[in-house]
Design a protein that fits this description.
Length: 170
């Protein structure tokens, strides 16, 4: 094919038009890629946050055996003193790992009134479960201290330690 000045003008016009289309498409592709990246980062952050909250909830559930035993003792004889040895029902380690180490409950105690106090250093959460016996029903109030409020279960969430959320026993 022979090149003439007229063909050159047409070819350069063709490439200039296509170059603009290509640049617009490339800009759109970059915007889409940035949005996908941001969405992936947000989803990952939410997933990690969910996993920590789920593990803290499992920490609360690990106290359930002691809580049930105290509930039974209070139903049998409400003014009776609770056996402090019920703290042995609270496991020393939980069934999952946090940052490569088994999650532990380093401090656990049951008072003579039935109050359960437990602390896990991996989560930085101190839980205080307090029973109230009325007639045949036992209700529990829960208070938790955590570095981040969103990490503790909703039933224990409160800004003031003096006001406690109530949860009912099983």
């Amino acid at each position: 094919m022979e090149t003439t000045p007229e063909n050159t003008v047409v070819d350069s016009e063709y490439w200039r038009i296509n170059k603009k289309k290509f640049e617009r498409r490339l800009k759109k592709l970059i915007v889409v890629m940035v949005l996908l990246f941001l969405a992936a980062v947000l989803v990952r952050m939410q997933y990690c946050d969910y996993m920590k909250r789920a593990r803290v909830s499992e920490f609360v559930i690990s106290l359930r055996a002691a809580q049930d035993a105290i509930t039974e003792q209070l139903k049998e004889n409400p003014p009776k003193k609770i056996d402090p040895n019920l703290a042995k029902l609270i496991p020393a380690e939980l069934s999952f790992s946090v940052e490569g180490r088994r999650a532990q409950i380093s401090y656990k105690t049951v008072s003579s009134e039935g109050k359960i106090i437990a602390f896990s250093p991996q989560f930085g959460v101190l839980l205080v479960l307090t029973p109230q016996a009325e007639n045949d029903a036992v209700t529990w109030t829960c208070w938790a201290s955590a570095s981040l409020l969103r990490d503790i279960p909703l039933s224990c969430r409160d800004n003031k330690p003096s006001a406690q959320s109530s949860t009912s026993a099983r």
